[in-house]
Amino acid sequence: xxxxxxxxxxxxxxxxxxxxxxxxxxxxxxxxxxxxxxxxxxxxxxxxxxxxxxxxxxxxxxxxxxxxxxxxxxxxxxxxxxxxxxxxxxxxxxxxxxxxxxxxxxxxxxxxxxxxxxxxxxxxxxxxxxxxxxxxxxxxxxxxxxxxxxxxxxxxxxxxxxxxxxxxxxxxxxxxxxxxxxxxxxxxxxxxxxxxxxxxxxxxxxxxxxxxxxxxxxxxxxxxxxxxxxxxxxxxxxxxxxxxxxxxxxxxxxxxxxxxxxxxxxxxxxxxxxxxxxxxxxxxxxxxxxxxxxxxxxxxxxxxxxxxxxxxx
Length: 313
What we know:
The chain is mainly β and 313 residues long. The protein has helices at residues 2-19, 35-38, and strands at residues 49-57, 67-76, 82-93, 96-110, 116-130, 149-165, 168-174, 181-185, 191-196, 201-207, 209-210, 215-225, 232-241, 245-252, 256-264, 269-278, 290-299.
């Protein structure tokens, strides 16, 4: 009976993610370190060539649960008002797999001595696959589940604006503007829409408040707005100790509560880990939470001995 319940819940989750007009972009607890995927205007915001790798295992021990990997690279050009970037993303849930590659361009305007405003664009290609005929159904007659989608290729574009100071940032973005559809051909030659992408609107904000020489408070937030889905808010409250160690807690409305930790192994190399406990879904009875790992490395140019100014975000 327990296995039957797990299978029923997995089927419901996959069905809602494939067919419903809801949140479709992968979620990240470390959104504050994976910012390029969230907002294209972030490209070139650090004084180095920055490489970031992230892995997320969601709902551990739940068969068919989402897993996500991202790699991003971005840097400012010698002309300080231009930033370029590149990202690779792989997102898998149940029988479906989405892989994408995107390039980023940001135009950075210096408003005054302490603040900047960047406008960014992204352009990419998505490769979507779904092995729908591998699902076990109660009734094997639904034509939508009798075929597969192999390497369905769609383009997409994004836009963002990013304002930053040494101890504050805020941004708004639409990572995917086009609302593509992924469809399959049934046994009768008809066209069946399996998934329709929805436009997502992201709002990010963060700050750093020094408490003492060795302790700073670092709150961050991410708001996700999607048509036909509840507004989702991620709130993270962290403390930075000795300018190296970060510890904090996170809350995602209607979904999860967890903790995160990070450590600056060197001035250039950061390692982070987070654990989320799902409380808003029936799946919390059958999984061991969600784990996320992130690595970020700033590669300095041969003429640089260190990052010239603080990069708190």
